[in-house]
Amino acid sequence: MKYAHKSLVLLVAWGLLAAQANFAQTTSEPPQAAQQSQEQLQQLVAPIALYPDALVAQILPAASYPEQIVEAATWIDTHKGAQGNELAKEVDAQPWDESVKALTQFPAVLANMKQNLAWTSELGDAYVNSSRRFRRRSRPCASARNSPAI
Predict the structure, then answer these.
(1) Helix, strand, coil tally for the chain in percent (to 5)
(2) Structural domain contains residue 53
(3) Is 150 part of any domain?
(4) Rg of the chain's alpha carbons, rounded to an integer?
(5) Which structural domain range is residue 12 located in?
(6) pLDDT in 10s for each residue of the chain, 150 residues
(7) Residue-wise over 56-71: b if at least 16 C-beta within 10 A, else e?
């Protein structure tokens, strides 16, 4: 069951990112960032593919805030003594996105994202762009679902 859940989360994450490549071929709107092929998206997601679902669910949105990743990783380096509730309380006072705050519980992940900032930014861009495209494609379906005729 746990494996099936992990597969489902990775499939959804992969689907969002793959939708970016597929949707880019069917729309005439200007790209907001460079479009990746499915192979490029696989390579982009590969470093986090084996992480637990809950962690992947935080990494993807957090990657869209690379400047906050740098701040949080630096902050963690200077607050190494803080742990548990004390750490959570201090982190909660920071102005970072909730996904970035969640990653402070995983200092090695934050350090890796900071060290590989180009990858982090590219992952964040792909996540944001594919999420936007997915939402735009879903709007007509949502409108039809809310129609009085249905």
Answers:
(1) 75, 0, 25
(2) yes
(3) no
(4) 18
(5) 2-134
(6) 455 455 444 444 555 555 444 444 444 444 444 567 888 889 999 999 999 999 999 999 999 999 999 999 999 999 988 888 999 999 999 999 999 999 999 999 999 999 999 999 999 999 998 777 677 767 666 555 555 655
(7) bbbbbbbbbbbebbeb
